């Protein structure tokens, strides 16, 4: 005889048996004042350019408030796709500048709050973050975040006044392409590895905004001797090309490390001139005659 077992599946709506999380006390409007800001043009993405933490009154909540879906923030703007700590960065109206909001000053936790922090967080932090190439502009005043408790506004984070934001940079005054003639030198003028000839100074002129942090980087094929700042000759190893030497670049008589950013100065406003030196540098015990040309690219950044 077969026994039949009847299985009854009882579906219950959990919301029908749980107390909702509601705001039982007053809501709060939290305000920050951001001063006028200056920003270096080429700061890396993720750089924090300003941050402030404000104290918030403890929320008075009723019901069961453990579910983080019941306490969340609406941020104004579009998600930039990058994070600051664990917090999403939202775009502002200024190209290259976004903002993030977090509970607590260290940006280790964000909205929505963790379950054990739903009703205990009493600080909110706003930070401005670089999201791309920065442009000058004005950061609008108004609401930047709103914390909701079961659909009710519990806290608003407001920027009180509009904020002028100025990008700092320099403009190159002359041609981007430079030819530095080192001239013809005698092979016999090289006396051993480390000896030099044909030294020539060349200058880069810039017009800068006050406070711009000027950096330069030279890139090119390094000579296989490994001597700092020495470029390999074009077409080295081929017939008709000199050997045993390279071309060295210097700034204030100090060899420039190829492929590394070199800070020049924090510039005042106006025209600035930076002197560099190029020269032939003996890299091997034996030098042979021939053409001796080298090429490098330079990249100016402001960060």
From TrEMBL:
The protein's UniProt keywords, in alphabetical order, are:
Fimbrium, Signal
Q: Does the keyword Acetylation apply?
A: no
Residue stretches making up the Fimbrial-type adhesion domain: 167-303
User: Which Gene3D superfamilies does the entry mention?
Assistant: 2.60.40.3310, Fimbrial-type adhesion domain
Q: Where in the cell is it found?
A: Fimbrium
Membrane-crossing ranges are none
Indicate the secretion signal residues: 1-20
InterPro entries per record: Adhesion_dom_fimbrial, Adhesion_dom_fimbrial_sf, Adhesion_dom_sf, Bact_Fimbrial_Adh_Pro, MrkD_recept-bd
Family as reported in the entry's similarity comment: Belongs to the fimbrial protein family.
Q: What is this protein called?
A: Uncharacterized protein
Biological source species: Chania multitudinisentens RB-25
């Amino acid at each position: 005889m077969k026994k039949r077992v009847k299985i009854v599946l009882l579906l219950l709506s959990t919301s029908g048996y749980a107390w909702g999380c509601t705001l039982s006390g007053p809501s709060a409007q939290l305000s920050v004042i951001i001063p006028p800001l200056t920003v270096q043009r080429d700061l890396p993405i993720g750089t924090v350019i300003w941050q402030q933490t404000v104290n918030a009154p403890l929320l008075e909540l009723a019901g069961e408030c453990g579910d983080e879906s019941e306490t969340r923030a609406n941020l104004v703007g579009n998600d930039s796709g990058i994070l600051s700590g664990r917090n999403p960065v939202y775009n502002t109206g200024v190209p290259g500048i976004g903002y993030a909001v977090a509970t607590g000053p260290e940006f280790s936790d964000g909205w929505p709050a963790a379950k054990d922090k739903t009703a205990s967080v009493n600080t909110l932090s706003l930070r401005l973050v670089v999201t791309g190439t920065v442009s000058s502009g004005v950061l609008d005043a108004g609401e930047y975040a709103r914390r909701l408790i079961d659909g009710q506004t519990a806290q608003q984070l407001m920027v009180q006044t509009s904020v002028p934001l100025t990008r700092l940079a320099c403009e190159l005054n002359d041609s981007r392409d430079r030819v530095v003639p080192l001239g013809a030198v005698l092979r016999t003028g090289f006396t051993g590895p480390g000896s030099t000839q044909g030294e020539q100074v060349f200058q880069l002129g810039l017009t800068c905004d006050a406070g711009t942090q000027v950096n330069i980087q030279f890139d090119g094929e390094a000579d296989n001797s490994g001597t700092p700042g020495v470029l390999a000759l074009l077409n080295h190893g081929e017939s008709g090309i000199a050997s045993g030497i390279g071309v060295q670049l210097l700034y204030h008589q100090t060899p420039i490390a190829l492929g590394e950013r070199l800070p020049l100065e924090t510039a005042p406003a106006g025209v600035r001139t930076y002197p560099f030196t190029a020269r032939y540098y003996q890299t091997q015990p034996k030098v042979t005659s021939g053409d001796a040309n080298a090429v490098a690219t330079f990249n100016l950044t402001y960060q």
